[in-house]
Amino acid sequence: MSRHDRLPGVILAGGQATRMGGGDKCLRRVAGKRLIDMVIDRLAPQCAPIAINANGDPSRWAEFDLPVLADSLPDHPGPLAGVLVGLDWAAGLGARAIVTVAADTPFFPRDLAARLKRAAAASGLALAASRDEHGRLWRHPTFGLWPVALREDLRTSLQGGLRKIVAWTERHGAGLAEFDSVPFDPFFNINTPEDIARAEELIA
Asked: Is 13 flagged in the annotation as binding?
């Protein structure tokens, strides 16, 4: 995919990481490499430019030389706030949409952006999904394609108290890009020290 064809990408790193004892979970190391580096390595061939959505002191991200986008709404309203600030950033670039990924998910698909574009609904929205071994479909709403045209609708919804991503995406009929979960779910995310051990097993 040429740089001209790529959409901006936003890494959602604004969570509280309570199950990891707080701090920036994506700076933890897995098999010697930081999660954030693994995520950037997967996203960079798919999206350009890239920004990090994170709150607090932005200087801790200085070495990455990427824009750091803090939530524009107070009280940590969740991932949709990161989507919103990403859309506002993209609007300033003249982009039509963004792709978002979670900062704690190091194995997400290398064709995520292309598959999301193909799955987009009439609204321009798409979410990633995968099926487990029982055939149940799981949406992964922090991995999505989000049109800039819906940013004011999203802002109004968040200001009105909306927090659940799927409640908003269903309202706009988001498409689903379904990914295979064999041999493991590519959206496996790291929430606990045990998850780090599992990720290291997968890498090995």
From this structure: yes
